[in-house]
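Feature request disguised as a bug: please show the residue count (294) next to S-adenosyl-L-methionine-dependent methyltransferase in the output. Example input:
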Amino acid sequence: MESSVSAESQSTPIQHHSRSYQTYPGAQYILPSDEDERARLELQHRVLQRAIGPRLVIPTLSLQPGDQVLDCGTGSGVWLMDLSKQVTSDVSLFGIDIEPRLFPMSTAQIVFSVGSATELPAHWSNKFRLVNQRLLIAALSVKEWPRVLQEIHRTLVPGGWVQLLEAKRWGAENGDLSTKHRQMLEKLFASRNLLIDCSVQLPRLLDDAGFKNIHVEERKLPAGSWAGPEGEETRDNFIGVFRGMKTPVLNAGGLGYVQSEQEYDEWMNGLAREWDAIEGTTVDICICYAQKSM
Ligand SMILES: C[S@@+](CC[C@H](N)C(=O)[O-])C[C@H]1O[C@@H](n2cnc3c(N)ncnc32)[C@H](O)[C@@H]1O
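Example output, currently without the count:
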């Protein structure tokens, strides 16, 4: 485990109603894993796929009988379950996550297992034709990102592809609450050595891990009621992410931004209203995909 002086070890925690969080040894992941989070992950999948289009597999790649696919940090397995409807039953699907609470039942085609992306099973070398990894921004530290990409590289077959989706920027450009919120998130992420600007660093990290054929795509997702019902869904999903970070923030004594649970909740409500009010508010995502050499 990396040595970090956690803000939580320095401040007096603020009492609040806590949700359920993962307890995997050494993991810094700051979002909950409960039924509300499962519902949010389903919503998030819809919001993201609407932005990307119908493509679940981003690189130009047609999965063949016998191919194997891994979803790293699979959560509720929503991406894999969707993929299973688009491929024949002789394509094998695997999901791995540090927290099994949201796993669906494994089936003959889809196998879920507990483990960290930082140390994939040794017997998975040269196995997968495609590895998908989506939204581990709030999970992986500065030191873990290179390690995870090396692990993905190891587990791909020669010529196989990795596809990564990460959040890049979010909130109202000139909104006071959004600005204050970005500053608080930077402090929270820094206290755990999490890489808040991972999306910017991914092309270089992929190159360092030995990947070729590196592609980057970006999408801006309109967020807030000014953008209609779809903007409201995007808002609800991402403000839902920030609501889920309440316990890490309050356990760290509020990080100098809030002094009570009520203040935190009201801040998130205000943030949502600010996104509604400021036309042009977006959440920007980055999609990177790259290939292991033949
Ligand atoms: C924001 S959720 C995204 C879930 C899924 N990828 C999706 O897009 O629906 C992040 C997931 O990464 C998992 N996670 C966090 N750290 C991890 C690690 N070191 N290895 C594997 N999974 C991890 C969390 O438990 C959580 O399920």
